[in-house]
């Protein structure tokens, strides 16, 4: 996937990468839990060491792994946001349920997750999937 600012954003918002997730990858704070989740999907979709850093930086310290290595054989193709609960610009907690479509050496698949997010010091952070 490309990080061309004029290309369509991998998160499926319909905006260009530069107007959407690219600005968050560049350092802007995501305004909502959903925007952060979309930017994290785009980081997985575009890959590379700089995106591994972004994913770690947007992961809550209480659950963040010490290292992260993206699997180059997995290609993230499409994101469907199923629902959100809170996680808006005036909230400190939020939940985002999504389906992330991918292909890998075994064919096509879908990863479904309901994720918990918190906002600390004005920045949204991914905490963990809900059981």
Automatic annotation (TrEMBL):
Recorded hits in InterPro entries, A to Z, give: NTF2-like_dom_sf, SEC_C_motif, YchJ-like, YchJ-like_M
Q: Where is the YchJ-like middle NTF2-like domain?
A: 32-128
Question: What domain of life does the native source organism fall in?
Answer: Bacteria
Q: Which residues form a coiled coil?
A: none
Gene3D superfamilies referenced in this protein's UniProt entry, alphabetically: 3.10.450.50
Which chain regions cross the lipid bilayer?
none
Q: Pfam families, per this entry? A: SEC-C, YchJ_M-like
Alphabetical list of HAMAP family matching this protein: UPF0225 (MF_00612)
Family statement: Belongs to the UPF0225 family.
Descriptive protein name: UPF0225 protein LK10_08840
Species of the source: Sinomonas humi
């Amino acid at each position: 996937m490309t990080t061309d600012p004029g290309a369509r954003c991998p998160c499926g918002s319909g905006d260009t990468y530069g107007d959407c997730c690219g600005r968050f990858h560049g350092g802007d704070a995501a305004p909502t839990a959903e925007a952060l989740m979309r930017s994290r999907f785009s980081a997985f979709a575009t890959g590379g060491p700089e995106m591994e850093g972004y994913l770690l930086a947007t992961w809550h310290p209480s659950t963040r792994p010490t290292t992260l290595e993206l699997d180059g054989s997995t290609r993230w193709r499409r994101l469907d946001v199923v629902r959100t609960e809170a996680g808006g610009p005036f909230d400190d907690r939020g939940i985002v349920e999504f389906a992330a479509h991918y292909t890998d050496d075994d064919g096509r698949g879908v990863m479904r997750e309901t994720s918990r997010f918190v906002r600390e010091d004005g920045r949204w952070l991914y905490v963990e999937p809900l059981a």
